Amino acid sequence: MASSGTRLRVKRDNDVTVVEFVDRNILDEANIQAIHDEIAAIIEAGPKPRLLISFSNVDHLSSAALGTLISINNRVKAQEGQLRLANIDPQIMEVFMITRLNRIFSIHEGVADAMGSFEK
Amino acid sequence: MPDQPSSPPAERLVARVANDRDEINAVEGRLLEALDRFQYSKASRFAVRLAVEEALTNAFRHGHRALPKATPVLLDLTVGREEVRIAVEDQGPGFDPGGVPDPTLDENLDKPAGRGLMLMRAYMARIEYNPKGNRVTLTYRRPESQ
Q1: C-beta of residue A75 within 8 angstroms of C-beta of residue A105
Q2: Domain annotation covers residue B114
Q3: Do A63 and B119 touch (CB under 8 A)?
């Protein structure tokens, strides 16, 4: 699959940036790097970013994708922002549990739930 | 558990794969078709594909770090009724699996790398390295519930 072009669908909902993935499988290293770079640009665009990442289209991801999510989380924290994850498939959720990454991410069942969790 | 008399024979797929997404997808597609023929569940297909991805990533990212991108790894897959065997052999200098820190420790949770091996261990029944450390063999066993 080509790595050119955006890997994300991005929309603004009030002061929250909502990100969805174009790809069902987040496995390809070039695409994972592109995802990292696109989201990093969103985070760096202003102070205290509020970012919601929805996994509604995602069937599969690798440990490299988890690594990118951790880097994103670290960047958001460095900017004193907030990150929420939502709509995670049960099998992918199991990966978060196995790796104990559910302890460092704020994970929500749906987008509405995640939107309501942002602190003012 | 021994194979039932009516079980189809195990299917074997051997391929040399370069670090190219189209080549990897083609082999994974054939693997997923074989898993379908043996009626593995969605959860099993997820686990097996994840293990293949992680083993390939380790081979290319670490084993082939100093080698040209086109250098292929040898992928040897066997799908049977009771288990799936995945062997990935790279052409690198070898790898010490004992040297990988535990990524689930609190002090390592926010480190971006180092989860591939533990995911393979979590989903596979067995994981073995050859003495040189450039060939990993993974065994997935069909859950009794399937």
Answers
A1: no
A2: yes
A3: yes
